[in-house]
Prior knowledge:
This protein is mainly α. It has helices at residues 2-11, 15-28, 33-45, 49-67, 73-83.
Amino acid sequence: xxxxxxxxxxxxxxxxxxxxxxxxxxxxxxxxxxxxxxxxxxxxxxxxxxxxxxxxxxxxxxxxxxxxxxxxxxxxxxxxxxxxxxxxxxxxxxx
Length: 95
């Protein structure tokens, strides 16, 4: 349900609400890559790109500490899109 609420509010550009739901999701399952991706999207969509990139680092740290793995391809692809092209412009949209 938290995932659906996060997505609903992100699509509606209600970023404060979306961020609250994503934060609750991560509080319950801090190792959830899906939760980290949702938070990254919310932060980036609300114009907080540097925070979205920091969220990737949090995801990376949790996965390394808990499971000894790196984020999966989907999470890394989102990170790359948020990082943007050489001009520094994001190359993604929240959809």
